[in-house]
UniProtKB/TrEMBL annotation:
Component of the ATP synthase complex composed at least of ATP5F1A/subunit alpha, ATP5F1B/subunit beta, ATP5MC1/subunit c (homooctomer), MT-ATP6/subunit a, MT-ATP8/subunit 8, ATP5ME/subunit e, ATP5MF/subunit f, ATP5MG/subunit g, ATP5MK/subunit k, ATP5MJ/subunit j, ATP5F1C/subunit gamma, ATP5F1D/subunit delta, ATP5F1E/subunit epsilon, ATP5PF/subunit F6, ATP5PB/subunit b, ATP5PD/subunit d, ATP5PO/subunit OSCP. GO terms for cellular component: mitochondrial inner membrane; proton-transporting ATP synthase complex. The keyword Membrane applies. Coiled coil: none annotated. Its main location: mitochondrion. It comes from Tor putitora (Putitor mahseer). It is a multi-pass membrane protein. This is ATP synthase subunit a. Keywords: ATP synthesis, CF(0), Hydrogen ion transport, Ion transport, Membrane, Mitochondrion, Mitochondrion inner membrane, Transmembrane, Transmembrane helix, Transport. The keyword Ion transport applies. Gene3D superfamilies: ATP synthase, F0 complex, subunit A.
Length: 227
């Protein structure tokens, strides 16, 4: 039984072809394309308003040099939210439960922010490794600690997203299994458990959106340090 709980995180295959590629490319088909008309429909208008509000909020602490990242960061957040939300549907696969995919997003983007900082302002970038006013005997230790914390950042980004989504999916499957087992024996308890399952599903919807926002927000904070 425990093995079957984790089978939902295995990438599905069809004729030996992994379907994770379809799961990654599908979200882009679901969004309507803005037209060249002056007046759009309600869906495109709401979509544009939400994207503009999030872009303004995300770019607020950044200077003009960081605004060129707006398209990349907003597209990444919309992509992650869509994948996370689609993964809550029955008989679907969530690519963001794979640590390899999340690290594939986190490592290159984090590395680009570090390279930008080392290219534009190397003194400030290296100054983050040693806080001002540090006693001389603690300098080697603090440099090592700050360097380790710098390289742990992409790992924390990927593991945070993977762990939160994996834990939520496991809880949903465990409680759903309990509902089916208790229904013939104790219907009242099964109904109460189903209510808990419904509330947990609502919580997972919020987690799916919040984790995508946190992923992009932390990237923007790393970018703020180096731009």
């Amino acid at each position: 039984m425990m093995v079957s709980f984790f089978d939902q995180f295995a990438s599905p295959l069809y004729l030996g072809i992994p379907l994770i590629a379809i799961a990654i490319t599908l979200p882009w088909v679901l969004y309507p394309t803005p037209s060249s008309r002056w007046i759009n429909n309600r869906l495109i208008t709401v979509q544009g308003w939400l994207i503009n509000r999030f872009t303004n909020q995300l770019m607020l602490p950044l200077n003009m040099g960081g605004h060129k990242w707006a398209l990349l960061l907003v597209s990444l957040m919309i992509f992650l939210i869509t994948i996370n939300m689609l993964g809550l549907l029955p008989y679907t696969f969530t690519p963001t439960t794979q640590l390899s995919l999340n690290m594939g997003f986190a490592v290159p983007l984090w590395l680009v922010t570090v390279i930008i900082g080392m290219r534009n302002q190397p003194t400030v970038a290296l100054g983050h490794l040693l806080p001002e006013g540090t006693p001389i005997p603690l300098i080697p230790v603090l440099i090592i600690i700050e360097t380790i914390s710098l390289f742990i950042r992409p790992l924390a980004l990927g593991v945070r997203l993977t762990a939160n989504l994996t834990a939520g999916h496991l809880l949903i499957q465990l409680i759903a299994t309990a509902v089916f087992v208790l229904l013939p024996m104790m219907p009242t308890v099964a109904i109460l458990t189903a209510t808990v399952l419904f509330l947990l599903t609502l919580l997972e919807v919020a987690v799916a959106m919040i984790q995508a926002y946190v992923f992009v927000l932390l990237l923007s904070l790393y970018l703020q340090e180096n731009v």
